[in-house]
Amino acid sequence: MKIMIAVTDSYCANLIRGQAAFLHDHGLGVLLVSGDGPEIRHLAKTERCRSIAVDFAKDISVIRDLYCLYRIIILISKEKPEIVNAGNPKPGLLFAIALLLFPRTRFVFTLRGLRSDTMPGIKGTIVRFCEYLSCRLADKVIVISPSLREHAIQKGITSLEKSLVIGSGSSNGIDTKRFSKSKELLLKAKRFRSRLKIGEGTFVFLYIGRVAKDKGINEMCKAFTALNDENATLIIAGPPEYTDPLEDDTRQLIARNNNIIQLGKVKTVEILYAAANALILFSHREGFGNVVMEAAAMGTPSIVADIPGLRDTVINYYTGIHVDKKNTVALQHAMRFYIKEKERLLPLHGENAALRARKCFDRSHIWQGQLNLYKMLLKKERPR
User: Model confidence at 38, in pLDDT bands (50, 70, 90)?
Assistant: First the structure.
């Protein structure tokens, strides 16, 4: 059996890391389709599968999208996969349309969030229709969190019958071996803090991900600045999102504030989790929030926006804190609460988070659930 797994770009390799090797070990041939880049090439090499580059445009680009559709049709015709699993809006839509020409191939759409939630006007309407169409044409829709599934059903994007959440959620589960504190890792974290001139008593807040407006970076930086605490540091790690840039005021604020450290993209994120006291993910929209569970596995609690998808990553005031979306004052209060409770509730939330991450979100559970779904779809006769 051959399966084709498609994502938008190389940076998304983290969303599927380990899946290809697992499927290969269970007798499946795997072909990755993605925008080119070092991450996806490295993943294909280490997980014994092939990768083919298709340069998907993140935004609407008619000529480029039509060319990608043509390439996908040729690719499916040549490779003849039994299953296609496409995630992200653009690959999902283009593969859904292409597979109309290949009715014997089963199509699984992985819904990792609703981009239309933060898009107003005609563009939002178009993107919402594309999300609906991807789900409508799929044999099954894997939704990566329970609250996102409920939200998507309420929006009419998918249905209860067609959609499912594997296990407790997440698109790929957590590598609990990698994200586990060890003496060696704690030593590296101590050196990392020392290199950045962060004192032992300094409280470190951490953000990891795309540096973009819809990730709540503007609000997070404002809330941190309002703390006005010399013994607190905010580390921002991730690549800039040029299609959704930060406000000019935020960029100037980051440049002026010596307690905000911007690192860019970091490969060994586990060192950052070990060096931090708490993670912040204050997104305007999110499918799940894998970074929250990675931090949790290492005993680092999180402050998250109380929105569909993201709210499933934290049990409020047990493994972290929920904060109302875009409410900078509430975020500031949550940050101050954790600084105050650094010696008491913060480590307790971290312990609770680690136990939950290991019990409910180990990646082997997600991979086995995906494999079971693929086998079920191949056995099930498609309705005419």
Answer: very high
Same domain flag for 152 and 97: yes
- DSSP assignment, residue 11? G
The position carrying tokens 């041939």 is 29
- Judgement on whether residues 122 and 27 belong to the same structural domain of the protein: yes
Q: What are phi and psi of 345, to 5 degrees?
A: -75, -30
User: pTM here?
Assistant: 0.91
What are the structure tokens assigned to 105, written together? 């191939």
Say if 29 falls within a structural domain: yes
Rounded Cα distance between 20 and 29, Å, is 8
Residue 342 tokens read as 């650094």
- Looking at the 3D structure of the chain, how many domains does it have? 2
Q: Any residues with CB less than 8 A from the CB of 305 and at least 6 apart, and which?
A: 216, 281, 282, 283, 284, 286, 311, 322, 323, 324, 325, 326
Cα dist from 244 to 69, 127, 285, whole Å: 25, 16, 13
**Cβ-based neighbour number of residue 248 at 10 Å:** 8
